[in-house]
Amino acid sequence: MKHILVIYYSQTGQAKQVLDASLKPFSGNPAYSLHYHLVKPQQAFPYPWSYTQFFDAFPETVHGVPCGLEPLAIDESISYDLAVIAYQPWFLSICVPISSFLQTEQAGRVLKGVPVVTIINCRNMWLGAQEKMKQRLLDVKANLVGNITFVDRSANLISLVTVLAHVLKGTKDKYLGIFPKYGVSEQDILKGPEFGAIIKKNLESGSLENIQPELNAAGALDIRGNLLLMEGRGRALFPLYANYISKKGSAGSAQRRTRVRIFGIVLPTAILILSPVITILSRLAPLLARKKFGKEIAYYSQNTLRKSS
Fold this sequence. Notes:
There is one protein chain. The protein is an alpha/beta fold. The protein has helices at about 15-20, 50-55, 60-65, 95-100, 105-110, 125-140, 155-170, 185-190, 190-205, 210-215, 225-245, 255-290, 290-300; strands at about 1-10, 30-40, 80-85, 90, 95, 115-120, 145-150. About 50% of the residues lie in helices and about 15% in strands. Helix 12 (about 255-290) packs across helix 13 (about 290-300). The protein is globular and about 55 Å long. The mean pLDDT is about 90.
């Protein structure tokens, strides 16, 4: 029997939905044992969030500050053949619960030397979070072999509205009768078993190291030129904004509330202003800097971490 360790975090249930779809080829198969573990913070993050709570989580998320977690009853006597980690990006970073787990001694014990497949469900921007995931997995000596993304395919500005309605109001259907339902479409979720079948085939043949190109060919990654450029700007600026807020106090402190509120206005406004401009630039980039743009797309389509210069 092959053992698959499944680590995930979900506030609304969508992570579990895409996870179950992707692991469907293993479900009910006596040759496989799936060990599901939901990561639970000791102090649960709210859903829906208040506006201040949502943006107050920004500095610690960007800096990777861990939160306290409920103990995970992982059977550490088992030698796992594969680990699957399902998570969501928060502010171009790994969501705090999964980031926190990856910094525990337990993660170092159970993931060391184990091949890992990550499954991301998100609005659209996941590149920066996956870069941090690569580093976290290197830190625990795990072997990232595959990445699968499930994204909201709405236009960037439309999904900005629907995600804020989703996280701040708990809206799960159409917003105001105008904007589409937020989240991953049912059609995309139905592709999950196709990705799982690729993983299963290669796990059985002992060739997990080579699955990403096959996953890519099946449509597992969504890399959009305009979002690649926008994320690049965000990853450069977010640590500066995070430091700006953190200097006034720790998470939840009244002393930094004004700066949190300022950031809560600046970020959506910046996306609103920059999104059309960057969309135009992304269409020009393959023409003006074809080689560099192609290299960036190729880099984010694989699982090794770029070496610092």
